[in-house]
Amino acid sequence: MKRVRVLLVDDHTVVRRGLRRILESVPDIEVVGEVGDGAAAVGAASSLSPDVVIIDLSLPGLNGIQATKRIVNEQPAVNVLMLSMHAEEQYVEQSLAAGAKGYLVKDADDNDVVGAVLTVASGSDELVHPGAGRSTCPASVSPSVLSPRERQILTMICTGRTNREMASELRLSPNTIETHRKHLIEKLDLHSTAELVRYAIRHGMTG
To answer: What is the spatial distance between Cα 177 and Cα 165, in angstroms, rounded to a whole number?
Structure first.
């Protein structure tokens, strides 16, 4: 049986060592590399062609969400598993919108980690750790109510960019971006950024 090839991405060496120990105790899994930042993750995914990339959400430089989007765009066959200390649903939704196939919180036990790697590698539907919340979204309002700028900002929100990053890219003020975000929530009859992301996923507006 072909072993599942895994790339580990975390800026803490001790975390990478712990994950390697857990995964290499399973005969069906092979750790083919480990790196400590998002840009290196993109390069390693290209050169090593792993089956699964386990990537931390909070990374220096490119964060886990941004790196995931680049990896998935450049290497569609690679399955990304997000690993984070954050259990909030907005991070789950942004990660899945970026192309991650699964989301684990860092308090997952050894069996959860191994099971998630094997599940994601098999191409199964999205896997979300029970400790990470997801909410439903009414998605009843048509995207036609949005202006071109609002559509653009909604797509950017799904990439995990901050208000400041979006403002810099669009040559607007962070306050203007925040105003657009609030208008999006009001127009679409939603209640949070997480629901915005889920709405965008359902309507194919994630970029």
So the answer is: 10
Does domain 4-128 sit in CATH 3.40.50.2300? yes
The domain made up of 143-202 is a member of CATH 3.40.50.300: no
What the block records as the tokens of 129 is: 């750790």
Q: Using CA atoms in the order 54, 57, 60, 61, what is the torsion angle rounded to 10 degrees?
A: 90
Say if pTM beats, i.e. exceeds, 0.85: no
Containing 61, the helix (H) or strand (E) segment is none
Under the phi-then-psi rule, with left for phi > 0, alpha for psi from -120 to 50, and beta for the rest, what region is 181?
alpha
Contact 39, 61 (CB under 8 A): yes
- Residue-level length of the chain: 207
pLDDT tens-digit readout, 74-126: 999 999 999 888 877 788 888 988 999 889 887 777 888 888 898 888 876 56
* Pair of tokens at residue 6: 């895994």
- Residue 41: name the closest of 14, 65, 24 by CA: 65
Handedness of CA 16, 22, 25, 27 (dihedral sign): negative
| CA–CA gap between residue 81 and residue 94 (Å, rounded) | 13
In sequence order, what are the beta bridge partners of 105?
A: 84
Answer for the pair 36, 61: CB distance below 8 angstroms, yes or no: no
Q: Token pair 């964060």 is at which residue?
A: 63
